[in-house]
Structure formats: C-alpha cells, structure tokens
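Subject: Protein record for review, amino acid sequence with backbone structure tokens
Why sent: The fold of this protein is of interest and is recorded here as tokens.
Enclosed: The protein record, placed directly beneath this head.
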Amino acid sequence: MKDTLEKILHMNQLEREQYMSTNGDQLLEQMTKIIGYPEDELRDKLNYRLFIELLSTNVLTNEQMAHLTIKLSGKDYLYSSIGKTEDDSVFTRSFSALWLAALLYADAQLRFLTEEQSTEILEVATPYLMKELDVRGFLGDKGWALAIGNGSELATAIVSHPSFKLHLTSKLLEGVKASFWKGSVYINDEEESFAKLIGLLISKNVAEEVLIEWVEQVFDKLEFYLVTNGYTPQYFSARTNTLHFMKQFYFLLKFTRRMPELMGAVSIFIGKWSQQ
C-alpha cells in the first residue's frame, strides 16, 4: 500500500485525475481501511497527506466525498472502540475525526451532502468530544494520536457548517467541560483549540448568558469535586486544564471585544482559582 500511495503522491494533476477516474473507489476503500494504522509514515505522512491532496485539488467526486463523510461518522470509524484509552483504536477515531473535519469544511463550500445528510452527520458527530477518553499525544513510532485535539477540530468544523443548529451548542460545551476531567494535563495546545471553538460559537450568536452559565458550571464542578474528594491528582489535572483554557478564552474575548460580561466573569473566576 505504501508503494501505491507514494506513486499517486508523485503523479501530476492530470495523471492523478486519470488514475482516480478508473481506480478511485477502490483506492478510497483501501485508504479508509488503513486510516488508523498504528504507524506514522503510512497513516499520516502518506495516507492522510494523499487524502488532503485529493480533496484540495478537487479530484474526488461529490459521490465519493459524500460516501466518505457518511462512512467515517459511523461506529466503525469515529466511534470505533470509543471509551478505550490504551490501545491503537485511538488512531482510527482520531484520524476519522481529522478526515471528517476536512470533509465538512469542503461540504460547507461544495454542498455534496444533502441537507438531510449533513444535519444527521452533525448530530451524530457532535458528542464525539464528550465520549473520547484517550488523551495521549505523541506515541513514538506510532506517531501522534491527539484524539482530543482532532475532536476539537471536528467540533469547530461542525459549528462552521451551514447546517449547524444552535441546539447542538449544549452538547459541544459539555464536551469541552468533560475534556478538562479526563485525567491528564494537556500539553499539545488543546486549550487553544477549545478557545477557538467557543469563539466560533460566539460568532454564531450563542447568547452571552448561556456562556456565562457554562463558565459558572465549569467552576462549580471543580468546587464540588474539591469539597467531596479533596486534593486528588484528578482535581489538580482538571484545575490546571480549566485555568489554562480560561486564560486563553479571556484573551480571546479581550482581543475580539465581544461579550464584556462574560469576560468579566471569566476574569473573576481566574483570579479566585489562581489563589487555590
């Protein structure tokens, strides 16, 4: 498979179009089978790279893109072995999220999905960030897992899509809040991707009071856990993740000059919890 991917990557645009016209469906089937292969070179540097090139150069047909989007949002890909934290299934979920994000961004421009299909896929994919529990980053020769970061990118693509509906906001916010409590401190800029996501929700006119209430709930959870369980490793990792995110979020609000009441609430909580 490596030889095939390398050969296609080295083709010019015309050669690639000719190849895809006769072999495209078969190639995409083979590529999805190895979407989560636990080796960095094959999965990331060859397979994912070729997918992005095919997508960005308009070589894929509308039917192929629609088929891929529907397929990758299902239980065998985005939700494959969801809930597991120490096996290689994370690569299938993480890269399905990454491919799906790219496809949703493309569909926002090309509209190869029907309205019914896009609405259903957004509904199905929205809980992913909440359900994903594997927080690992770089895994040696296997490469980057980054399921939480890629899940956040998928969530951003969902909010960016023309079929996005505001009722999905609560699940997305719950997914971000849940991500603070997954037992590890993030070190790969996940908090920046969360802030970008919430900033995009603000641009979609999510009510300021909704976000203020969410911020209060985030810190209420910290308070309740501390009172109930004390100073555990779980508490400290969640506190660190929460404060790192809130500081990113504060500066996003400050620079965009939107929602001053929300910015004030975030500032007060940062001040309070930075002392604990």
Notes: The radius of gyration is 20 Å.
